[in-house]
């Protein structure tokens, strides 16, 4: 985290944090509504953080093919077709399908 030297720096960081928090809260609401499993949710959170399937697999101690299966389920449950659409759906930039 960068050194916050002025109040403007502090306020800017708070604003960015608020946006991140709002995005995460929206993603959780979407996943609640779509009835994602706990493991699907963990994978989707990591995908939202920009992780690749191999990284998600390593973080969750599962096979990469299992990650792909979970993501297919999340796509189906959220009405999305790919990673980009899913991220946009989770952060509230597009509505569900």
What is the topological layout?
Elements: H1 7-33, H2 38-48, H3 53-60, H4 64-78, H5 83-90
Short description:
This protein is an all-alpha fold and 97 residues long. It has helices at residues 7-33, 38-48, 53-60, 64-78, 83-90.
Question: Total number of helical segments?
Answer: 5
User: How would a textbook summarize the main sheet?
Assistant: none
Uncertain stretches = none
Question: In which range does the helix fraction lie?
Answer: over 70%
Number of strands: 0
Indicate the radius of gyration in whole angstroms. 15 Å
Mean pLDDT: 84
- Shape type: globular
**End-to-end gap:** 37 Å
Task: Give the class from helix and strand content and strand pairing.
Answer: mainly alpha
Order of helices and strands: HHHHH
Beta-strand content bin:
under 5%
Structure description:
The chain is mainly alpha-helical and 97 residues long. Helices cover 71% and strands 0% of the residues. Helix 2 crosses helix 3 (53-60), helix 2 packs across helix 4 and helix 3 (53-60) packs across helix 4. The protein is globular and about 45 Å long. The model has no long low-confidence stretch (mean pLDDT 84).
């Amino acid at each position: 985290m960068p050194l916050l030297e002025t109040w403007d720096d502090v306020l800017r960081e708070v604003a960015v944090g608020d946006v991140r928090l709002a995005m995460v809260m929206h993603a959780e609401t979407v996943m609640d509504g779509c009835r994602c499993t706990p493991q699907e949710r963990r994978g989707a959170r990591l995908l939202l953080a920009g992780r690749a399937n191999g990284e998600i697999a390593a973080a969750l101690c599962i096979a990469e093919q299992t990650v792909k299966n979970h993501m297919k389920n999340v796509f189906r449950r959220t009405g999305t077709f790919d990673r980009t659409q899913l991220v946009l759906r989770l952060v509230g930039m597009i509505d569900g399908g």
